[in-house]
Amino acid sequence: MNKTHQTLSDVLGLLKNSTNLSSFKLDELHKTLHETLDNIDSLVEQMESYDNSLSSLVQILGDKPVENEDSAITRQRKDVQQNQHNVRAALVEAKLYQMQAKQLDSFTTSLLDKLQHQILTKRTLSPLVPAFWQGVYKEKSLSTSLLKDSGGVNMTLLLFGGATFTFLLILFLSHQMGKTFPKIFRAWAKANIEINLNSPPNLSIITRVFSPHSPDSKAKKLEILEQEEKILLREELDAVPLGTLGQLFIAVICVFVSLSVWNLWVICIHAENYGLAQVINSCIPACALILGAGLPLLGWTRGMPRPISSFLMAISLVLASNLVGLLEREIIAPNFAAFMQGAIALLDAFSLSLLFRTKKAPRDFDHTQPIDESDLTGRQKFEAILNRRWSILHFLSSLILILTIIAIITGYMALAFVINTQLLVFVYDLALVCLFVGTWRQLSALGLSKGQPLVKKLQLVGFSKNRVDQMKVIGGALGTVFMCAVAIAIFVNGVHFSLIDLYIRLQKIFLGALFADIPISPKMLLSCLLTLTCTYYGIQLACLWLTSRLFPTTQLSTGAQSSIITILTYTTWISSGIFCLRLLGVSVSSVTWVVSALSVGVGFGLQSIVKDFVSGIMLLAERPIQPGDTIEVSGNSGEVRRIAMRATNIMLPDGTTMIVPNSQFITSAVKNSTFNANPNRMVITFDFPTTANLLKINQIILKVAGLQKDILVSPAPVILTTALYGPDVNFMLRFWYPSSGSSAKIKSAFLQALFEELKAAGEHENVIIKG
Fold this sequence. Notes:
The protein is of the alpha+beta class. The chain folds into five domains: 1-121; 136-195 and 234-358 and 385-422, no CATH class; 522-586; 599-677, SH3 type barrels, CATH 2.30.30; 679-770, Alpha-Beta Plaits (2-Layer Sandwich), CATH 3.30.70.100. It has helices at 2-16, 23-61, 71-121, 130-138, 144-150, 152-198, 205-210, 215-223, 227-238, 243-269, 275-293, 298-302, 307-329, 334-355, 378-410, 413-447, 453-460, 465-493, 499-511, 522-550, 558-583, 592-603, 607-622, 662-667, 694-707, 743-761, and strands spanning 513-515, 518-520, 630-633, 636-643, 647-651, 657-661, 671-672, 680-689, 718-725, 728-737, 768-769. The strands form three sheets. Strands 6-5-4-3-7 form a five-stranded antiparallel beta sheet. Helix 1 packs parallel to helix 3 and helix 2 (23-61) packs antiparallel against helix 3 (71-121).
């Protein structure tokens, strides 16, 4: 609390002289107030929670002592009330600080907006006027602090010379690797074609990359290729760009080489402690990515970098980052700062204009007609599509260059610098994200393609082809979302390319914010999703182990096994849900409105659902019916297949499934033919004419029943006479079969065998089976 008071006092003292504050100083105060306000909000939340706990304790102990009360309780009440008084006093003080911090934050925000508006609309002398250059020359004496920060004129020249040499070296290295790697890659692909023609089973990943068909169909196609077709295929390989994966590989090598060369140069000239060296060092990785991966957007898509554009973009980012650092430290004179802003803005605009220049489409190519794939090669089609797509961007970048020149001539150099620098950072940001997203998708497609080791291992643990495809799609989406967060962090940082600042921005993005007292963030959501996924596959593995390893060693019935698996599944899901709520930091107060709505719903629409749920728990615990039992409920007879928490599935004799709410088994009468492991009983009725040989037919029926493996010998099948009417006699066959058997299959097998026996004995016309 004292630290908060001191911070607010210091900020208030600085804001009293706000006319002397620069925009960068105001921005620092704004960030300080934000951090202080976050700390106060957290402190107020903790105090309110503590005050609620003390209030609950006071309600339990009572506000006033009663007769014959224990002295320990009286003493405890006084201590609690005193603590509650202190907490409430501190809470009032914290809320006052909270209100003051919000007012200061609002005031700082308005000042910052006004100052930034003034800076952007500030007009200096035009560079075409001699007075502008006279002002720059007169400020030569004010450049002492600037030269001191850079180490003097000689050290400044050495640092910029070292940076230029590093960039040229990386440019040359990336250019050589950009020419060498595709040659190696395509030579490998061509050699692979010859290998595949001689030995089709040994197909490498190259054939899967260049062919959308399966390896088998590709092998068959390669087997029937003639020499001319192989030459055409090699020519197509020559037109294939290296791709984002290869470009990123080159860029990463360039980043490490550039950092090594630059740090070695800084150590040799003893410039570790100078501000200019530190600024350039923070920009080296970003610039090496530009030089190594090729020109952003266009070059990274085509795999054909433009060295001049890449070099100018890298130099522009370094100069802009260095100028912003000098302005933040207020060690640069105003006129010289305006001159630097105009020069860097012009360089940025020229870099952007050069960036979006595209080659012309192939000759005799009509832009108004759709592309005919038979007339153009792959590279020509690609260039034509890009020419159509990027022509508008080329026009806009040229327009920005013209407007920048006009703004510099008229004296609006700060406005030109800010706009062009932000555009340059945005283009770099977008290109970097496209590079990483493309690389991630290529890795996902290659790593999760058919026949890869990872896919084989996933299939061994039970992942189907659809699951692997889902993982590929979801993995690509998650990578895209993450790179969007990186893009936001880079764009917000502007020309500050420090990895530490980028990490802090990403941390703030993924920590999220409070929503209804619940911290919602990508990190929390990803943790919950991972928990639920692990729960799903963990339950599957546990059920597989129980059914294949543990249950065969026990004497548990099928119903008991099903009950154990069902209870285990629901218990695990409930525990996983509670764990996810704890990950989100959900407290009882956060879900009070949910509980209230649920209680109202139970009284109306959810009452039957809760009743069925409780009935399902009772069925699983008491087990009056089990999977495999033959039961009769509501006039329908069938076999119990599955008992869930809300309903039970019953397979009827005609093959259909009847879904019965669990509450019906509790509130109504249910006939269970196999209760307590009793075998199932089946009854089949027959009609015989009185002229038939009844004794012979009965013997045939009993013989056939005895030969059926699914009909029990004990109790033995019996035939009973049930009715005599006119010329016919009605008989009933009663037999028993195991509770795990299928009544429909057993009856079908018995009747087929009986028909064959009766037909062989010549009695099949004297028997009428009623069912």
